[in-house]
Amino acid sequence: MLEPEQLNTADNAVLNVLQEGRVTPGYVEDRTDYNQSYVSQRLRRLEEHGHVKTLATGLWELIEDPRTDNVKSAEPQSSVELACRDLERALETEEWDAVEDAAKNLGCGLIE
């Protein structure tokens, strides 16, 4: 696990966006001043230390924010709500692999 002082400015920006929910590197790029490649690098570093996990190609979720003592606390959401939010973000950022994954998670038959 990383300590807060081991985080750089980009890590903090990525973690701030992750506090909102699941993200793609493209979504984080749109919300911050960091390019998608660098965001992906920071996400991999956070994953190596057990703070985030990848759910599907390009889709990331916060497990534990190293800036706090607690695991991320959020209101429980249904899997349908989470999948809908993931689909919406993927469509907004035109990340088609993430769109396909979110549609499959919804089980709505959009992608065959």
| DSSP summary: helix tally | 5
Q: What's the arrangement of strands in the largest beta sheet?
A: 1-2
How helix-rich are the residues, as a percent range?
40-55%
Unreliable residue runs:
71-76
> Which topology of the domain at 4-62 does CATH recognise?
Arc Repressor Mutant, subunit A
Q: What is the second-level CATH architecture of the domain at 4-62?
A: Orthogonal Bundle
CATH superfamily of the domain at 4-62: Winged helix-like DNA-binding domain superfamily/Winged helix DNA-binding domain
Structural category is mainly alpha
What is the number of beta strands?
Answer: 2
User: What Rg do the Cα atoms give?
Assistant: 14 Å
Estimate the strand proportion: 5-15%
Oligomeric form of this entry?
single chain
Mean residue pLDDT? 83
Notes on the protein architecture:
The chain has 112 residues and is mainly alpha-helical. It has a domain at 4-62: Orthogonal Bundle (Arc Repressor Mutant, subunit A). The chain is built from five helices and two strands, in the order H-H-H-E-E-H-H. The chain has helices at residues 9-18, 25-31, 36-48, 79-92, 96-106; strands spanning 52-56, 59-62. Strand 1 and strand 2 (59-62) form a beta hairpin. Residues 71-76 have low confidence and may be disordered.
